[in-house]
Amino acid sequence: MDPIAISLVKKPARPGLxxxxxxxxxxxxxxxxxxxxxxxxxAEVSLAGGNGAGCVLVDGGLRCWGTASxxxxxxxxELPIPAWASGLQTGVAGVSLGSGFGCAALDSxxxxxxxxxxxxxxxxxxxxxxxxxxxxxxxPAGARQVASGYTHA
Length: 153
Fold this sequence. Notes:
The protein is an alpha+beta fold. The protein has helices at 3-8, 15-40, and strands at 45-50, 53-58, 61-66, 79-84, 92-97, 101-106, 111-115, 130-135. The protein has a 4-stranded antiparallel β-sheet with strand order 1-2-3-4, with no helix packed on it. It has a 4-stranded antiparallel β-sheet with strand order 5-6-7-8, with no helix packed on it. A hairpin with a 2-residue loop joins strand 1 and strand 2 (53-58).
């Protein structure tokens, strides 16, 4: 046989190599699809600002910072960075801050407030301040939003 003709003859592909290339291609495609799906994920974010404090609501969890009375964390110290509001890591639909207090509407339809309460801002039937969220009483079921003024919610 002519040496040039021999070099043009194809050797049969090895089945193991073909399978390996196929598996690697499927793995690469799967990784690409997962990456594309991850990039499409968008967090739902809301911000609230009050007198000396701020809160951010991300995907149903509430983090606050600032003056101790307005954070709902239970801390008696000012917080320079966001921290979880106590018991509000999930299930929060909306948030609002006033002057020294804050309130959160929950997915359950309930409302919780924290902070100063000298004018009944917390809606719990007392005038005692609370560094932790307390349940608002007497509201109809199904609250989805809450708004705060200077001394009232």
